[in-house]
Amino acid sequence: MSGGLRRGAIVAMLLATMPAAADEPRPVMIGGDAIAASLTGRPGDAARGRAIVADRQRGLCLLCHAGPFPEERFQGNLAPSLAGAGSRLSEGQLRLRIVDSARVNPDTIMPPYHRTEGLSAVGAAWRGRPVLTAGEVEDVVAFLVTLKE
Amino acid sequence: MRAAVLAALLLAAMPAAGAEERRSGFADMSAATQAMQADDAANPGMLWVLDGEGRWSRKAGRTERSCADCHGEAAASMRGVAARYPAIDAERGEAVDLAGRIALCQTRHQEATPAPRESEASLALTAFVAHQSRGLPIAPPDDPRIALLQAEGAALYRMRRGQLNLSCAQCHDDNAGRRLAGSVIPQGHPTGYPLYRLEWQGLGSLQRRLRGCTTGVRAESFAPGSHDAIALEAYLMSRAAGMPVETPAVRP
Q1: Are A60 and B165 in contact (CB under 8 A)?
Q2: Ranges in chain B, pLDDT < 50
């Protein structure tokens, strides 16, 4: 945990980290260890979020995390289970951890899902693109808050 | 017999818990896949080794010479060679990997056009040469230029890369033995290249295996034969020093 992140204080406006996708011109407001506001200004869709989380090409989540997905075989164990994520973390905390988990723990192995700056040797097919769009991040957040265990 | 001896040798080479804890990917495979590697009659990689053996004694190039015309019996002349690569090419003063060394030899001494890297012909001859070191401990050359290369490779190994922002070390050091989806993350010791992967349905090089990881983290790949690729291989071989060569290994 970075001691420099004080809950409640807006510590950064990360205009520079925003990918230049058409649907997301708004700044990401990081306050404390959370991003309180939706990246799109709208709530996400939990059903779409569940599909993204389970999709090993899009969300990639189950490569490292297990979770309440009885239909999915071969879930990873590099990271905590997603079960109960919505009880352990607030919506805003979940959002920051998806956007850029290194803001919470610089040594994390969790990829930055919505940051394109500060990366090295990104393959041409992915350069300048975040793993998930702002809309997809919101869908995943909307799903994860429902995981109350 | 021979297969059982090899299996015993590989298992004996796994250090006891509490020692260095290094494991070949062999140790994480199913018993069936281990048996496939250990039995030369079942190991598909042996088909490439046999092909390479034929190429070893085939005359080629303007000089109409075969490898055997200069090097004689590979069992004697190539014994232990692969365990020492990458090594410095004296003429150029730079490091080469085993496939690169074979290609240089073909160019210089056969005056032949070498088969492209990772072609079946290159893989077969490389597998045949590397097979002559099977069971011998990996022994990187004691050379300050190789030490420098290993240090560069170590830095590459620890560098986060790609859209997923992961280094080799974060998986293969920090999380080896855990499961990435259904697969146990190996420690990443290049003990058996070129090797047969069931996933590939073919023999492949360490470079090809590295592409699997770099593509997985959505990063640029190391160009085969490039300085960085050879530096990373030199580091990986130093990390695996003392572990026995398995070529041709089988992996899932």
Answers
A1: no
A2: 1, 11-19
